[in-house]
Amino acid sequence: MNGPPQTKRNSWILPAAVVAVAAAVLWHSDPARGGLWPKCPFYVLTGLYCPGCGTSRALHHLLHLHFVTAFRYNPLAILSLFFLAALWRSKSLRTHPRTPAAVLIVVVAYFVLRNVPVKPFVFLAPMGQPPPAFSGRAPRA
Amino acid sequence: MYCTRCGTRNDDNAYKCVQCATILHPAPTQQPAWGAPPIPPGTVPNYLAQAILVTIFCCLPFGIPAIVFASQVNGKLALGDMAGASAASSSARTWCWVSFGIWIAGALLYVVLAVALASIGALAGPR
User: Fold this and answer.
1) How many C-beta neighbours within 10 Å does residue B83 have?
2) How confident is the model at residue B35 (pLDDT cuts 50, 70, 90)?
3) Is the per-residue pLDDT at B28 higher than 80?
4) What is the pTM assigned to this prediction?
5) If contacts are CB pairs under 8 Å, which of residues 70-109 in chain A contact chain B?
6) Minimal CA separation from B33 to chain A, in Å
7) Contact A52 B56 (CB under 8 A)
């Protein structure tokens, strides 16, 4: 399962290069303006938001340091960046028996609640837009 | 099993130590029925970070089964169930790759289609 030490040592280079290229592309073009950006297939098929909906738009605004706009597109994506950093830093959080179950509850609850087209929950949807499945409009980016 | 007090080896089903008569079976909450000791957490990777990444950043709900299996790994380790933990760990890893693979395949397909449509448009002449 684990590669030899030589490949292990350089294993960060490819992911780092992919992240750098993705960040450059994301910084350059706003997914909300369409262009080359594809829409999420789950969103197009169902008219519902998945937990990842709005992440690329949020990251675009995060790279431009528009923190509030980034948060409004996908609050959990922004919070998950902090959580991933904590997971990386803290061995006790990483190995705690309840951590994955807590993450599961939060993600599933987020999945359900951000599709509820009512006032407090609608703020979990990208830019506070209720999902097309419940508002009669066609799914748009 | 070994006596917790004097270290004498006893039969696995023994109720009391043959040497010092200490009761060998601890409270049921401490250990599971088959008497396996808890395995230190982190022995088997649970791929939780990767599962979160593919769930939130791959824009497909296939990351959720990865989180489900990730949540089983630590619990099974605490119960001393090494085989179950390993199976859940490899399932979590598989679902991470499924989610990531579908995302990559979709992105590649999209790029190919976009290039194809653009070139057809260019061949058809100016609009």
Assistant:
1) 8
2) low
3) no
4) 0.70
5) 74, 76-77, 80, 83-84, 87-88, 91, 94-101, 103-104, 107-108
6) 19
7) yes
